[in-house]
Design goal:
single chain, Rossmann fold, two-stranded parallel ribbon, 6 helices
Length: 231
């Protein structure tokens, strides 16, 4: 029986690399994203037939999240893993963000993961499945005036809070906190800063490592940087 995994923010970057890797492992993969065209194009590129499914929607919207979970389970009969990857950052600091921009980032980066956890847990308890939440090195190191850093601290707290709540139900929870990764994340921030960077595929391999742990073993936190990244 195929393992069923849902990935939020799955059309580009780390989400897309993870989807490709899990398809190679034989998973059935549902990917969510806000841009229907980009999401559909990504799915079509995989040429994986009924093994991959595009689910357009906003992870900060409870109805969209519930619909994605419901459609995945109705289509494939189960849900084994969720990879909570959707999120974004803003250039500048909280002194330059508008209140609406700040609200959007908090809703996507903090409320969104909580909604995915809430909607997926009944199914993951049935399958003794796993949750992977993408955090950031920014979630363990203070960054002056950076609201994205604040949202990632919250994501890290959500991961441990969730782990404590569901470990007795047999559900595993992993927080993966990457440093600099060469992805479209930097497009809205004027380009990637100079210096070493990891690839999205590097992070996907760590996600696969967490998901592939034997029954009874739970990797709780993976923090990773490219060699040469100091902060």
């Amino acid at each position: 029986m195929n393992t069923v995994t849902l990935i939020t923010g799955g059309s580009t970057g780390i989400g897309a690399a993870t989807a490709r890797r899990l398809l190679k492992e034989g998973h059935k993969v549902a990917v969510t994203g806000r841009g229907p065209e980009k999401l559909t194009a990504f799915v079509d590129e995989q040429a994986a037939g009924t093994e991959v499914m595009a689910l357009p929607g906003d992870t900060s919207d409870a109805a969209d999240v519930q619909a994605a979970i419901d459609t995945t389970v109705q289509t494939w009969g189960r849900l084994d893993n969720v990879v909570i990857n959707a999120g974004f950052s803003l250039p500048g600091t909280l002194t330059t963000h508008t209140p609406d921009e700040m609200r959007a980032m908090v809703l996507t980066n903090v409320l969104g993961p909580a909604l995915v956890v809430r909607a997926s847990l009944p199914h993951l308890k049935n399958t003794k499945g796993r949750i992977v939440i993408l955090g950031s090195v920014a979630g363990v190191k203070y960054t002056p005036g950076n609201l994205y850093s604040v949202t990632k601290w919250a994501a890290h707290a959500l991961a441990e809070n969730t782990r404590m709540a569901v470990t007795n139900d047999g559900v595993g929870v992993t927080l993966i906190a990457p440093g600099k990764v060469d992805t479209p994340f930097w497009d809205s921030r004027g380009g990637m800063p100079e210096g070493p960077a990891m690839t999205a595929e590097n992070i996907a391999e760590s996600i696969l490592f967490a998901l592939n742990q034997p029954e009874g073993v739970d990797i709780n936190h993976i923090q990773m940087r490219p060699i040469g990244q100091v902060n």
